[in-house]
Amino acid sequence: MKLLITTQVQENYGAHDWDGKGTCPSYWKFKGGNDYVVKNFKEFHRVAEVVMALRDKIESDNEYFKEYIIDFEVVADDYLTEFERSQLEYDGAITYPAKELEAA
Q: Distance between CA atoms of 104 and 75, rounded to whole angstroms?
């Protein structure tokens, strides 16, 4: 089994102080997300605890960019993310697999 963690990414399109007066308001735009996996996952009794321990390796939050966890689940070893499946369908190969993490 493997642990799959899904994130949401946002970018701040208003973070640039174009006029030097600080008048550009924040405008957060959703920009998709990322998939992370922990392979050979066996800690089924503490899934949420493992995910929370990995937060520092996954999440970001600054005035320009945010990435935060929105979902997680334990899936089969041969599970492919939506992005991996679409790469196989359209390109015949997975060039950009889910990012691998080591359990904390």
A: 18
